[in-house]
Specification:
This protein has 731 residues and is an alpha+beta fold. It has three domains: 28-62 and 443-730, Rossmann fold, CATH 3.40.50; 68-125, no CATH class; 145-281, Prolyl oligopeptidase, N-terminal domain (Methylamine Dehydrogenase, Chain H). Helices cover 19% and strands 31% of the residues. The chain contains 15 helices and 39 strands. The chain has an eight-stranded mixed β-sheet, with helices on both faces. It holds the Pfam family Peptidase_S9_N. Residues 1-20 are annotated as: Disordered. Its EC number is 3.4.21.26.
């Protein structure tokens, strides 16, 4: 990582708020800043963490995270099924493998591949797993060559090391192994002796966002300094990378140029590694996403596109034969077109089919599309069928087992009250899914229900949200007796003390970057909140992807306030329905959701009894100059442009704070190792509010990166702080 983007003790030079007295808190590991952090953490330890209730909550959460009964998610690599696993005995985790027959049993026989705890102890490093990529071998050869990404302490910046799956050892650079030093970036296999490398090559090689600007081709046994440049982006680009697709008979090389979020170009590298090598740009709109699989190219549109006299709507998924497209043909088959209630959630290839995942009012529906044979003409339609038997309210995640050789897919189904179930389905075979694993129930869901409602935002837009909790609490008018719990004389339920109309309620949201929030089971949430009489609400506000690109674009830049108006509308609707009151309503958001939380705190304090602001953006004047902040200008705008700062300042919590105004109690959380969203955001607003005498709790984990925690113990501790803070403030 280049010095100007690293997490250092010195903030980058940039325009600052006049007379900002808290700029020193941006010195991430500066002595004065860390003394302040340690003082705030000590205050939290002496209050929230010192209670017996905290210890009990932390233990209950830790039991969920460390449970041996959770579903071990697996990925097929050759004849083995690999899983990364953390539990009480393996805090940092182990990478292990088994066979499908063994995986089908209640107690699979696992073969240990890599132990991160042992590795960290041997190397005196707090390694955090970031994943692995494995090269598909030539026919008849072993699956051997892996690239493993490891992060020190959980930061986005990581290292990549070559690993031998046969000997189960790292291949050292002295023996010709690939090693990418710590930086944001990566390696990608070309063949057994060659990789694409995009990383920090020295001054000028990283973008203002702290990501790689150059991709090179690197041959085994040579120093990375001798790697050949394949593509060099412009100085203001966001991210440059390269990759090879390894479908047998359709091997191709590509370069991706991310200019900004929602603005990218993809290039085909023709005649790669030859004197005739050249890059050919895939001629689609820069806001579109492109994918190539075997003979097919898929295009997912974010904006309407008119080409060859036909107009395709934003949110659509198009298909065409790739070679025909390169030759100039511009005819497309529309595989999905959105409606007012539907959006595309994803598409997954198998060997012979494409499974399209559609959100319909934030509930998943799966469709199977089968392309015509290669001999058929370009206008032959794709065959279509449905996958029935899916949950009415819930989330369905689909992933190919091996898209090159099989039509099998993994299906994971879940909702807020139903533990996840993992099934194996052979697409097109006409057989029912085979249930392989089911997570245990970590809390008693008896008497709990899920409802979906729609609030009306300030401009009349209907905003969906889910409510989860005890039936008598989330459906006012339904007697507590329906839950089986005795009713106390004052109308409270004796088991928890909560009463209809005053239920402690946690409202969660995100509202950015086209991210959709769909129902999912959380044993942590269930144990620490729902089982104790709490109500949980998820708001599907604009800025997300629940209704496709238009739902996201409705809250971009100068329209950001729409997301916050939506969230406020949901908060008011909960009160209007008699589910809770402002005194008993808390909210939480993380990252972009932390910006949401900061705006709820500073713009709508009267709606909430408590606010949790997690790993947030808050100082929107300086955000583009802090770590990866420059990469988000397409979402929020550029504060260095005076015209754009005029609207950005209207959602900059650091500048909206008014020392004379009343605010609900607030908890700020962040991580010293977060090299994506700078911890100075949380530190500075917390310090400003403390100086004004406001009710502020602060906790900063020294590890964890943007995720906030590097292992289960840290995750349980952080979650327990969140839930105990809410319980103390909301009742």
């Amino acid at each position: 990582m280049s010095a100007e983007n690293a997490v250092t003790d010195t903030p980058t030079a940039q325009p600052t708020t006049p007379h900002d007295p808290y700029l020193w808190l941006e010195e991430v590991e500066g002595r004065e800043a860390m003394t302040w952090v340690q003082g705030r953490n000590a205050e939290t330890a002496a209050t929230i963490e010192a209670t017996t209730e905290f210890a009990a909550t932390e233990q209950a959460i830790r039991e969920v995270l460390d449970s041996d009964d959770k579903i071990p998610d697996v990925s097929r690599i050759g004849e083995h099924y690999y899983n990364f696993w953390r539990d009480a005995q393996h805090e940092r985790g182990v990478w292990r493998r088994t066979t499908l027959d063994s995986y089908r049993t209640d107690h699979p026989a696992w073969d240990l591949v890599l132990d991160l705890d042992a590795l960290g102890e041997a190397e005196d490093q707090s390694w955090v797993w970031h994943g692995a990529s494995v090269l598909r071998p030539e026919p008849g050869q072993e699956w051997r060559h892996a690239l493993i990404d490891l992060s020190p302490g959980g930061s986005d910046a990581d290292v990549t090391r070559e690993f031998d799956l046969v000997t189960k050892t790292f291949v050292s650079p002295e023996d010709g192994g690939f090693l990418r030093e710590e930086s944001k970036g990566g390696l990608g296999w070309i063949d057994a002796d060659t990789v694409y490398v995009y990383t920090d090559f020295g001054p000028g090689s990283m973008t203002p966002s702290g990501y790689p600007r150059i991709v090179k081709r690197w041959h085994r046994g040579t120093p990375v300094t001798e790697a050949t440049v394949v593509y060099e982006g412009e100085p203001e680009d966001m991210y440059i990378m390269g990759w090879r697709t390894h479908s047998p008979g359709f091997e191709r090389d590509f370069v991706g140029r991310s200019i900004a979020f929602y603005d990218s170009e993809t290039y085909l590298v023709q005649d790669a590694s030859t004197p005739d090598e050249k890059l050919v740009k895939i001629d689609v709109p820069r806001s579109a996403e492109v994918g190539v699989k075997r003979e097919w190219m898929l295009v997912e549109l974010r904006d309407d596109w008119t080409v060859d006299g036909a107009t395709y709507l934003a949110g659509s998924l198009l298909a065409t034969r790739f070679e025909d497209f390169l030759a100039g043909a511009r005819g497309f088959t529309v595989l999905f077109e959105p409606t007012p209630s539907t959006s595309l959630a994803g598409a997954t290839w198998t060997a012979h089919h494409l499974v399209v995942n559609v959100l319909e009012d934030v509930k998943n529906r799966l469709h199977v599309l089968t392309p015509p044979p290669p001999a058929e003409g370009p206008d032959v339609p794709w065959a279509r069928s449905e996958l029935p038997g899916l949950p009415t309210i819930g989330t369905v995640v689909v992933g190919a087992v091996d898209s090159e050789e099989s039509d099998d897919v993994w299906l994971v189904t879940t909702d807020y009250l139903t533990p996840s179930t993992l099934s194996l389905l052979s697409v097109g075979a006409g057989t029912a899914p085979e249930v392989l694993k089911s997570s245990p129930a970590f809390f008693d869901a008896q008497g709990l229900v899920i409802d979906q409602h729609f609030a009306v935002s300030d401009d009349g837009t209907r905003v969906p949200y889910f409510v989860v909790g005890r039936e008598d609490l989330v459906r006012p008018g339904v007697g507590a007796g329906s839950t089986g719990a005795p009713e106390a004389a004052d109308g409270a339920t004796a088991a928890t003390g909560a009463r209809p109309g005053a239920a402690p309620t946690l409202l969660y949201g995100y509202g950015g970057f086209e991210v959709s929030l769909t129902p999912g089971y959380s044993g942590t949430l269930g144990r620490a909140w729902l089982a104790d009489g709490g109500v949980y609400v998820v708001a599907n506000i604009r800025g997300g992807g629940e209704y496709g690109p238009a739902w996201h674009q409705a809250a971009l830049k100068a329209k950001r306030h729409k997301a916050y108006e939506d969230f406020a509308a949901v908060a008011r609707d909960l009160v209007a329905r008699g589910i809770t009151t402002p005194e008993h309503l808390g909210m939480e958001g993380r990252s972009n959701g932390g910006l949401l939380a900061g705006n709820m705190l500073t713009q709508y304090p009267e709606l909430f009894g408590a606010v949790i602001v997690g790993v947030p953006l808050l100082d929107m004047l300086r955000y583009t100059h802090l770590l990866a902040g420059a990469s988000w200008a397409a979402e929020y705008g550029d504060p260095d442009d005076p015209a754009q700062w005029e609207f950005i300042r209207t959602f900059s919590p650091y500048h909206l704070f008014d020392a004379e105004r009343e605010y609900p109690p607030v908890l700020f959380t962040t991580s010293t190792k977060d090299d994506r969203v700078h911890p100075g955001h949380a530190r500075k607003l917390a310090a400003k509010m403390l100086a004004a005498g406001k009710d502020v709790t602060y906790y900063e984990n020294v590890e964890g990166g943007h995720g906030g925690a590097a292992n289960n113990a840290q995750a349980a501790h952080m979650a327990a702080i969140h839930y105990r803070f809410l319980r103390e403030q909301l009742g």
